[in-house]
Amino acid sequence: MGGPFCRFGGGMKERLQKILSRAGVSSRRAAEELIVAGRVAVNDIVVTELGAKADPDQDTITVDGKQLGIDAARVYLVLYKPAGYMTTLKDPQGRPLVTDLLTGVRERVYPVGRLDYNTEGVLLLTNDGEWANALAHPRHEVDKEYHVRVRGQVSPEQVRRLATGVDLDDGKTAPALVRLVRESDSNTWLSITIHEGRYRQVRRMCEAVSLSVVRLKRVRYSFLGLEGLKTGEYRYLTPEEATRLRGAPRGEKAVRPTATGPVKKREQKPVGKNPERKNAFTAKKKSKDAALPEKSRRRSH
Ligand code: URA
């Protein structure tokens, strides 16, 4: 790379987006957007080229005119995201943002991955770009457990299809762990654990098997659940939790049960009135842990 910001020649030059992400400015992808938008300068010269490199020890790098902090404090949070909040940092439609809920957090944190506007539950936030990138990397995909309330009843066949993988427009989903948590006359609550992180994956999986999602909540991200948090509340992760999450192997289980709120497990009672429904329930009960054997789950990764 040429350019005036490389004038020190032999230093350790790195791509700008990597430097910005490590300094906690944003994720690497968001840093690319900052660069392209002309908000990043090296030695007072605005750089809009994505391949540009600089030497963080030699060059003066600024974002919106502010020099990159050295050793900015790294923070890691878990938020119980309520429905009706965006996980983006801005919303052209002016809808509430998850960062609005972080009163008292002075660092500029951003979400690790996304949850839909109407999805609730575990959301991690940080200002540590490297940590966020490590967690988001496909090789590091960890288990994420969702509780899903769907309209009506769920057949054993629908559970089986969700568990073995359904065809979506971006390919077949990997095997998932699917459990029937509870059902009423009008709704069924499922627990679905996936390790992929595709766009609106759980909603699309349900749609693909003709299930209409009424409510969606992420109750666990790797071992991390919502214990001790009410909706809209956050807490700082302990250093041990942050370290463990970064290295969390796929399939790591929650330390404590994570069922919370309206999807608390209840004694399952056969649904009496209609004998056919009763049989349907029995069939479902058999497929309650329609998990694939651990071996075949591993194979799919
Ligand atoms: N799957 C979805 O459909 N939505 C989310 O927010 C998360 C997973």
Structure description:
- The structure is a single chain.
- This protein has 301 residues and is an alpha+beta fold.
- The chain has three domains: 4-67, RNA-binding S4 domain (Structural Genomics Hypothetical 15.5 Kd Protein In mrcA-pckA Intergenic Region, Chain A, Roll), CATH 3.10.290.10; 73-141 and 222-252, 2-Layer Sandwich (Alpha-Beta Plaits), CATH 3.30.70.580; 143-221 and 260-291, Alpha-Beta Plaits, CATH 3.30.70.1560.
- It contains eight helices and 16 strands.
- The chain has helices spanning 16-22, 28-36, 129-136, 156-164, 201-208, 239-247, 275-286, 294-299, and strands at residues 14-15, 40-42, 45-46, 53-54, 61-63, 66-67, 76-81, 110-111, 119-126, 144-151, 167-168, 171-172, 177-183, 187-194, 213-221, 234-236.
- Strands 7, 8, 9, 10, 13, 14, 15 and 16 form an eight-stranded mixed beta sheet that branches.
- A hairpin with a 2-residue loop joins strand 11 (167-168) and strand 12.
- The longest helix is centred in the last third of the chain and has 12 residues, at 275-286.
- The chain is elongated, with a radius of gyration of 22 Å.
- It binds uracil.
- Uracil binds at residues 115-116, 119, 200-203, 216.
